[in-house]
Write a structure and sequence with these properties.
Blueprint lengths: L1 H16 L9 H25 L4 E4 L1 H8 L5 H16 L4 E6 L5 E8 L3 H8 L1 H13 L1
Antiparallel strand pairs: 1-3, 2-3
């Protein structure tokens, strides 16, 4: 217990010396919060796929945040975008760029019925959550 408190004080002192006035949380606690955040995102993604009526689901970062019940702010949107990009790299979902006007574009993420994640999520949502967690852990 004393060691954790000492670590926290040292961490806060280092931040203060770097010019950061905000006292940050302990790094281990922050990692735990990030894991919980990621878990809620995984559950929301699988829920969207499981409850879909069509053959394809289009997901955007802001929508996934709302479904997960998280606060929608710029920092959270960036975190969700990074999470979705990891899933694209692991070939669990696809990304699409949709141009609306000459300069405006939006990045959508797609899961359709021919993908492995779609089939697993429709059959067993818990198995789909485990699949995503194991792919992200690699």
């Amino acid at each position: 217990m004393f060691k954790d408190r000492t670590d926290t004080l040292i961490y806060d002192l280092e931040n203060y010396l770097r010019g950061e006035n905000i006292v940050n949380e302990h790094p281990r606690k922050q990692e735990e919060l990030n894991r919980e955040f990621e878990k809620r995102l995984i559950q929301a993604l699988v829920k969207v796929i499981y409850e879909s009526k069509g053959r394809r689901v289009t997901i955007r970062a802001r929508l996934l945040l709302r479904i997960a019940g998280e606060k929608v702010d710029q920092r959270s949107i960036v975190k969700v975008s990074m999470f979705l990009k990891k899933l694209v790299i692991k070939n669990l979902i696809k990304s699409e760029i949709r141009k609306r006007f000459q300069r405006s574009r939006s990045l959508n993420y797609v899961v359709h019925e021919g993908m492995r994640l779609w089939n697993i999520a429709k059959a067993s949502p818990q198995e789909a959550e485990r699949l995503i967690q194991s792919e992200l852990a690699k």
